[in-house]
Design a protein that fits this description.
Shape: globular
Number of strands: 21
Radius of gyration: 24 Å
Strand order of the largest sheet: 6-7-8-3-9-10
Helix content: 10-25%
Bound molecules: adenosine-5'-triphosphate
CATH architecture of the largest domain: 3-Layer(aba) Sandwich
Strand content: 25-35%
Oligomer: single chain
Number of domains: 2
Order of helices and strands: EEEHEEEHHHEHEHEEHHEEEEEEEEEEE
Structural class: alpha+beta
Largest sheet: 6 strands, mixed
CATH class of the largest domain: Alpha Beta
Number of helices: 8
Length: 357
């Protein structure tokens, strides 16, 4: 396993890129810790596969370097990088037994049979395939086959990183959560550096210690699930993560105070906001509540979401959502809402306003 460093990394598929939009991957500088569990999360086309292919060596970046434990691997071939990959569709040899499938990467590298046997049994035990070791892989279900792919990634002790590219795509929805929690458990046991690519926030947040959120080829935030929830660095993160996502309202800032629809809104950072940019206030539905005073809103819809109810309200043509506990009293039509100040923040051109600006 290895620490992964991306230094000044950028990639364009065009021969002569000139502006940021020409890059499928904007400049990225990051250190990923040895043994960490990371997720690359973002919508289709944001550059996840491009980044994954650069790390695995299938693609040479137009600029920058990739280091594994401080060794420059930018020009190395994929097989020299000692990476295991688990793809969307399980790659298994149907005619072989489960045992031989798991043993394949080790035998390929000339590992002695007693060591092969020890590793295969260890891994089969971890992924609950011990009972089926002697069965042909052809007879397995999609999740059984994906477990083999997973096992093949884990069986080698010489891998620098295991990369997962949307590995649960073909898994039945009711089995997804099982494999998801299995993956997390496996990471805790083997402590190999893992990178998990997905557009599904639940998968990313359950699996990763740190989530890398991408949008239009740019990394907009790298943070723990809690950081992404509590302090979204960009309105996109606020919106993309959370269910429902963060409320984003246009605002003005005068004398260090934010105003929405002419009414003051208390925030923790408006004092740092500069005029001349597109200013917005962001607050998650979890931090909005009904109150005596505050913004006057009209309630438009109430939906049941298990332990919570999602209340849709409107003010000045804008939607403001609240989460209220199941069973809590909800006003009929008109109400006032207030925001929790330490979780209400101003964004400037999409980015969180901080003291340094
Ligand atoms: N081989 C290629 N040649 C030219 N442009 C490409 C190529 N591969 C990807 N792109 C472009 O680069 C951008 C990033 O694509 P990429 O596949 O990395 O995104 P992604 O987040 O992995 O999307 P998805 O989840 O749909 O796979 C997109 O605009 C895409 O059209």
């Amino acid at each position: 396993m290895a620490k992964i460093t991306l230094k000044g990394l950028r990639h364009s598929y065009m021969p002569n890129p000139s502006k940021p939009a020409d890059y499928a991957l904007q400049e990225l500088n990051v250190d990923w810790e040895d043994g960490g569990a990371y997720a690359l999360l973002g919508p289709s086309g944001c550059g996840k596969t491009t980044l994954l292919n650069i790390i695995s060596g299938l693609l040479t970046p137009s600029h920058g370097e990739i280091l594994f434990d401080d060794e420059d691997v930018t020009r190395m071939q994929p097989d020299e990088r000692h990476i295991a990959q688990v793809f969307q569709f399980p790659v298994v040899y149907d005619t072989m037994t489960v045992y031989d499938n798991l043993a394949f990467p080790l035998r390929n590298r000339g590992v002695p049979e007693p060591e092969v046997d020890k590793r295969v049994r260890e891994i089969a035990d971890m992924i609950d395939l011990t009972e089926t070791l002697q069965n042909r892989a052809a007879g397995l279900t999609a999740d059984g086959k994906q477990k083999i792919s997973l096992g093949r990634g884990l069986v080698r002790s010489d891998v620098n990183v295991i990369m997962f590219d949307e590995p649960l795509t073909v898994i039945d929805p009711h089995l997804k959560w099982q494999l998801r929690s299995k993956l997390k458990e496996l990471h805790q046991r083997v402590k190999t550096t893992m990178i998990y690519v997905t557009h599904d926030q639940t998968e990313a947040l359950t699996f990763a210690d740190k989530v890398v959120v991408m949008k239009d080829g740019q990394v907009v935030q790298i943070g723990t699930p809690v950081e992404l929830f509590e302090r979204p660095q960009h309105t996109f993160v606020g919106h993309f993560i959370g269910s429902p996502g963060m409320n984003v309202l246009p605002c003005e800032v005068r004398g260090g105070q934010a105003f929405f629809e002419g009414e003051p809104v208390a925030t923790w950072n408006a004092v740092h906001a500069k005029e001349g940019a597109k200013l917005e206030v962001g607050v998650r539905p979890e931090f909005v509540s009904f109150s005596e005073k505050g913004l006057a809103v009209e309630i438009t819809k109430v939906s049941d979401a298990g332990r919570f109810q999602i209340v849709d309200t409107r003010k000045g043509g804008r939607s403001i959502k609240l989460l209220v506990p199941d069973g809590a009293e909800i006003p009929e039509k008109h109400a006032h809402v207030s925001f929790k100040t330490d979780h209400t923040q101003v964004y400037s051109d999409g980015w969180l306003v901080t003291g340094g600006e």
